[in-house]
Amino acid sequence: SRWDNWFQLIEPLISTTPLQVTAGNHEIECDGVTREVFQAYENRFRMPNPTMIPAKTEPFPPDDVDPSWGCGTPSVYRGSYDGGNAYYGFTYGPIRFLALSPYSDTALGSRQYRWLEDELRNVDRSV
After folding, report:
1. Is 88 helix (H, G, I), strand (E, B) or coil?
2. What radius of gyration, in Å, describes the C-alpha atoms of the chain?
3. Are 85 and 42 in contact (CB under 8 A)?
4. Nearest to 51, CA basis, from 98, 104, 103, 111
5. How confident is the model at residue 19 (pLDDT cuts 50, 70, 90)?
6. pLDDT at 53 over 70
7. What is the SS3 string spanning 35-77?
8. Are 76 and 56 in contact, with CB atoms under 8 Å apart?
9. Taking CA atoms, which of 53, 78, 95, 113 is between 20 and 30 Å from 89?
10. Rounded CA gap, 86 and 88, in Å?
């Protein structure tokens, strides 16, 4: 698969260097049968899951399927992606890293919004 080829190409780098990832347009790649998205990303990475809920995604609608791409082109994906590896934070040394998801709801009061508010509220500003 494309993912396996990518891992083989970067193996010399990631075998000696930490790698943190976040979902972007390439991770939307969907299953040609179920039209489920983000499955390859979810199955190959384990990021800290602040929500403690499994990934929840919306499949590509049948009208958006583009046979030349295999499902639909990432630019037309209008679904959502929440939980799982969608967004997370981790601390390394004195630094708190936050990874946000452009595919998770960001409206006031949304899960990602509340999580980000909590993260920013709890930053240790004494360091």
Report:
1. strand
2. 16
3. yes
4. 111
5. confident
6. yes
7. CCECHHHHHHCCCCCCCCCCCEECCCCHHHCECCCCECCHHHC
8. no
9. 78
10. 7
This prediction has a pTM of 0.81
**Element (H or E) spanning 25, and its range?**
none
The pLDDT-based confidence of 69 (bands split at 50, 70, 90) is low
CA distance 60 to 90: 31
How far, CA to CA in Å, does 120 sit from each of 45, 93, 97, 108? 25, 17, 11, 15
CB 7 within 8 A of CB 87: no
Least confident residue range of 18-22, 91-95, 98-102, 123-127? 123-127
Q: Confidence band (pLDDT; 50, 70, 90) for 48?
A: confident
Backbone φ and ψ of 116, nearest 5° = -65, -40
In the numeric block, the tokens 């790698």 are attached to 19
**45 vs 6: CA distance, rounded Å:** 13
